[in-house]
Protein 1
Amino acid sequence: MIPASFEYRRPSTVDEAVQALVGGDAKVLAGGQSLLPLLRLRLAFPDLLVDVGRVESMRGVRDDGEHLVIGAVTTHHGVVTDPLIAQHCPLLAQATSTVADPAVRHRGTFGGALSHADPAGDLPAVALALDAEFEIAGPTGRRTVAASEFFVDYLQTAVGAGEVLVSVRVPKLGAGWASHYEKFHRVAQAWAIVGVAAIVRRDGDSIAEARIGLTNMGSTPLRASATESALAGAALHDGGVTAATDRASEGTDPPSDLGGAADYRRHLVKVLTRRAVLAAAGS
Amino acid sequence: MTTTETHVIGQPRKRKEDARLITGQARWTDNITLPGMLHFALVRSPMAHAKISSVDVSAALQRPGVLAAFSGADLAADLGSLPCAWPVTPDMVHPDHHPLATDEVRYVGDAVAVVVARDRYAVADAIEAVEVDYEPLPAVVNMEEALKDEVLVHSQAGTNKCFVWPFDGGDYDAVKATADIVFKRRYVQQRLIPTAMEPRAVVVEPLAAAEEFTVYSTTQIPHILRVMLALTVGIPEQKLRVIAPDVGGGFGSKLNVYAEEVIALVLAKRLGRPVKWTESRSEGYQATIHGRDQIQDIEIAATKDGKLLGLSVDLKADMGAYLQLVTPGVPVLGAFMYNAIYKMDAYRFRCTGVFTTKTPTDAYRGAGRPEATYAIERAMSDLAHEIGKDPMQLRRENWITHEEFPFTTIAGLTYDSGDYEAATARSMELFGYDDLRREQAERRDRNDPVQLGIGISTFTEMCGLAPSRVLGSLSYGAGGWEAASIRMLPTGKVEVVTGTAPHGQGHVTSWSQIAADALGVPFEDVEVMHSDTRVAPMGMDTYGSRSLVVGGVAVHLAAQKVIEKAKKVAAHLLEAAESDIEFAAGTFSVKGSPDAKKTIQEISLATFAAHNFPDGVEPSLNSDAVLDPENFSFPHGTHLCAALVDTETGHTKIRSYVAVDDVGNVINPMIVEGQVHGGLAQGIAQALYEEAVYDDDGNLVTGTLVDYLVPAASDLPEFTTDRTVTPATSNPLGVKGVGEAGTIASTPAVVNAVVDALRPFGIDDIRMPCTPERVWRAIQDRSSGGDRSAEGTVAYGGTQTATTAGRDTEAGGGAQ
């Protein structure tokens, strides 16, 4: 399929990118793995594409003390293979390794997937569970938005018109924390029907603290707050975890589509949350 | 002297085709760019069923780069009606099928107008400017609804019933009256989309003041296409040359005469310039034929201990909105396969073809036989469960034993050879059947959330289409012969011309092996030419696992004729009697005088010079053979699948899969292995993944690869494959077809495994594909998991609401 015609610019700095985005109906292009299909199916008709793929300051992972800073155009492959991420935030590498296929992971970018904000995408729920922070550049300068404020609605984020996501800060997971991303899908390339990102701190035979992000259980990624509360102090082996994870569907509003009806997803999220928590806890 | 190789047949030679294909040097139709070439695109109906009130192309004509635009009415006289070559009954309803709809659209994707422009970007923009007014009519997407004739797809026909095709072997009613058990099941074949890797494309080049045309097309059937285009468009056949360049898969989807091919020819004729069309994947999903989509009501009459007495099949087959080239013939081909490898006294088959407002169906890998095999292999396992017998034991007690071949079945076919016992024994051994049964019992005992199921498919199939007289008796419009020519070049190199049209099967390699062995020349010295009606003037093309058993054998026969001719020359040069000439490994020698010999290369050169030649013999070794096969080919095998079903999520994982196939003698084991692997992938895809879903309004909901799930290699298990070899007796190479066997065999093996895992839950069917949601829902409801894939959509049919489907999206929580 052939997209409608558009202008194309390829800035080399963030400032140039922000200037290029001024006025008109512009879209930011990074790896193109979500935007190009929309263009080719003629579901989107921007006048201008601003390709940030060559903005070098937006690429790569750096150590910033208690945090890692991940440039928005770092590819999924870059995330999966990055030694800092492997050391300090293995959840991100594990979840990213489930994204689509190698071809997509070599082109698609971390920031692109988050900016696209498909609730069926894996990374939004992971970023939410990690309490990541999003650095956004715009005509009036830069601002930082918490993950809880970043995902606004289906395919909508806090990134406004004329703005671009520059980088994402994720906290390093300290000693005692462990994580797991449990993705449920039918074929490797398919979107998650439901996904669960679990980060837990274990205290002996019980869970001390947990953070749970849910993929595809609503129009945005969600935190399983009721489960998180119930997991605090829950015993690993006497049904405590199951009692807590049985509350994983509370507050969710999952879609009904070809992947499954809402009731199936509400069931699935409980099973998958239990599995994710137990896997993270090494049990 | 060149070293000759013997016994190239049977060696896993690397494919001659691949170096080119994997280094980007293939020539696909879409790569063809001709001077002055124009591009066209089609305006397609967004509605499943509507009257066309008006089509206005004037705004499109004003767009930059646009040279022409036509409505269906504008071109109706030139375009004619697309052919259906298989009128299965004399009274079959065969509606007009205009390449561009004129008065009514009947499926989403039905073309209504065409725009021609200088480049494909211009034409993609310009089609949006064509104004079409539709007057909506109700859609009918479900066959059982359609048979009520409340909504007529073709109002002038007065019915949606296309045909009823009956077959009777023995007296089923009489047999049924004596049976202890009458066992009934309904199985459903979901609709599938073939998804060849290369989308369709066509280029037509007009020559000689637009009186001659070269058609380049992504087709499996260049020869049949030439005849059909000549008849449809009225261009004399000798003025048409059809070339299928490199073609990237077909699976039956390119076994057709498509609207776009006819439109391209008509546009090239009108405009006097080359034209090109290439589909996008999502366009192809609407406008390239679909497969399967049948409802199968099966009845088995048996004794109480499971001896089959009779089988009755009441089949409904969805034609879609129109008849394509062999649409009605697909379910009819299946008619001969429901009885499969089993002996019985009576067989009744009724097939009703039904029109619906969906994309036309046609042949898809296996075409009729996967459906039949699925039903009987499911039924045998279900019957075994019903009477409390091991499913393999039930099969054993009913199948044709190896001593009984040749065996004439209740469906009237004569199976020439086979050994079901041998293939089964090997398969059971590789699989570890008894150990897995033990593990299954243990998992059941401890209520393991992950249950194990074992699925069996002891399949056979009929392929190698086909004896022409049989095709004639089934009212098919063509024969089933195949042609081959061998040209011996002066240097002793060999050109093989075949009438088959490979599009991934590796004929160039396999035919080289056959010719090299027969002529005693090196494999590398053989070139194989095909798929151009000027180069290979005679052919019936490639489909129905026919190429080797008909076309490959024809190569062998042509080579025998070359040897016979060469013997006369050798006798003359060696001054011996022809009857004293022996031929082996590329060398002609005189009986009793081992030093008196000539190689086939020497004979070739001597024939080229013709200085010293026998009187009355033409100076040529070139030979043609046209083979009309005496019988079909009947590959068989035993496939075993162990599936783990996660009862908490409904997810199925194939733990092990063993395929022991008997395809007779093997020319190239690596190619056979590849065919089996690909076939298994496609059959497993039907069992677990793929489903074309339409909503009640007739929209294809699975319109892209995001929603239509084609599994990749990483989604499939490691296959354990092996072979038994029971040579076919119906051809001199002893070969059988292999192109569709894996697809035919694997679907029931997998679904039998899923159902077997879930027997303790009282489940005896899961609708295909066995999606996690269906399996989970089946466990909740003790049902087949329902026909619907999604809110407001219809999978095989049924127009339930969410409530009647047993789903309350507000209830939440899941029952357990």
Protein 2
Amino acid sequence: MNPTGEAAVLTRATPVRPAIEAQFERVAKEQGKTLQPLSDDLVLADSDLDSLCFAIIVARLEDTLGYDPFGLAEDAAFPVTFGDFVAFYETRRPGVADVPD
Amino acid sequence: MARSVIVSGASRGLGLGIARRLAALGYTVIGIARRRSDELASATREAEHASTGMIHFRPFDLADLAGIPDLVRGLRREFGSIYALVNNAALGTSGVLASMPDSEIDRLIRLNTVSPVLLTKYVVRSMLADGGGRIVTIASIVGFTGYSGLSVYGATKASAIGFTRSLAREVGRAGITVNAVAPGFIATDMTAGLESEERERIVRRSALRRLADIADVSGAVEFLLEDRARNITGTVLTVDAGSTA
């Protein structure tokens, strides 16, 4: 959530990836983790982040991006790689799936 | 800026006492209950006149489990960061287990256990995003001592203690403390059904020969929200005038 308490307004053009990368880096720093380089094939289990770190990342991304894809699809399996994680957010973005390219 | 604290079950009894106390200390209290009682309306006016902290009432039935995520999102949009959550709302239904209706057992566990767990889940998410917070759950000495006629209630209160201890370990690294306060028998609507003979017996058996009251329990909650309680987590603060000493 931004300081005014309003969820961020998303447009089709708002890139999700930089927001995700920023949160991974911020949480790793706060939690004293040595984050591996964020490539698409990085396996999240090998990233040095643990489940609490991911809970913090998801909570903050909900504030930044305005949605929580895990809350929207509770039965979905947690992404395996960093690329899967980004894709999970990109494909489950509210309204995006229905908009043709 | 005043720290915001959610108090569930704030319309009467202990919850109302906690809401009054925290508002008097300058917190912004968000009181949740099904209906605003006359007492809560009067506490809200008193807080306005005193110009310390405010009490905001938001009606919500905590048995509506599916509505809890939106409730918390809405509160966060309206009030910003949530500093603390006081899980106080509970049913005190008594009855012999063998003859308690199944629906009553279900209602008791839903309101006393599932509802505060879900409320905590969504508030904790917001605290994780903000980098810290305080959770206080009102348990009961019945969670660790026996009392005939309160087996289901006792089960829910014991579960509150187990929940507190494990969650404290889970979110400690994120700067969130999680504690429980276990009152003994105090004079509220919940204990109004106690026979005076029973009350006398409890007083006689307590170390201090009296019952704790709402102010004592509110004071314990107040302490756990203070900066000086920052290194207290995963614990149960018993306020029972020595009933279980």
